[in-house]
Amino acid sequence: MRSLRSSISSRRAAITRRALLQGSLGAAGLALVGCSGSAVFNGGGSSGAYDMVAWPGQDKWPQMFWDAPTSVQETYRYAVANQDLLQWMPCFCGCVDQGHVSNADCYVEEMRDDGSVLLDPMSFG
C-alpha cells in the first residue's frame, strides 16, 4: 500500500514537472520567434488594423498569418490560446518601446468580446 501511494505521489509530481517544462519550452519558443521579427506595422494603407483581426474559433486569420511560416502560425495560435499565461512572462527583445509589457503583447493587441482577436503584427517578421 505504501509503495502504491509513493508511486501515485511520484507520478503526480512528474506530471506537474512535465506540464511546467512544456509550458516553459512553449513560452521560450514564443519569445524567440516573437523577438526575431522586424515587421513594423504602419497602421494605414493596405495593412490597416482591420486586416489584423483573427477569428480563432472559426480558424479565420489575416492573410499575413497564412503567408507566415508554419512555426510562426503555431506561435500565434499558442499565444492566442494561452494569453493568460503569457501575460506574466516578460519579453526581453526591447519591445517595451512599443508599449509591450509582457510576451502576450508581442502577439495579441486586443481580445474582443465577440470572439475576435486583434493581432499584433510584430512577430510576423
What is the topology?
Layout: H1 2-36, E1 53-54, H2 63-67, H3 70-81, H4 83-86, E2 108-111, E3 117-119
Antiparallel strand pairs: 1-3, 2-3
Helix pairs in contact: 1-3
Summarize the structure.
By secondary structure, the chain is mainly alpha-helical. The protein contains four helices and three strands, in the order αβαααββ.
Question: Can you put this structure into words, describing what you see?
Answer:
The structure is a single chain. The protein is mainly α and 125 residues long. 45% of the residues lie in helices and 7% in strands. The protein has helices at 2-36, 63-67, 70-81, 83-86; strands spanning 53-54, 108-111, 117-119. A hairpin with a 5-residue loop joins strand 2 (108-111) and strand 3 (117-119). Helix 1 (2-36) packs across helix 3.
Q: How many domains make up the coordinates?
A: 1
Question: What is the helix/strand order?
Answer: HEHHHEE
Which residue ranges are poorly predicted, with pLDDT under 50 across at least 5 consecutive positions? 30-34, 36-47
| Secondary structure tally: strands | 3
- The averaged pLDDT comes out at 74
Helix-strand makeup class: mainly alpha
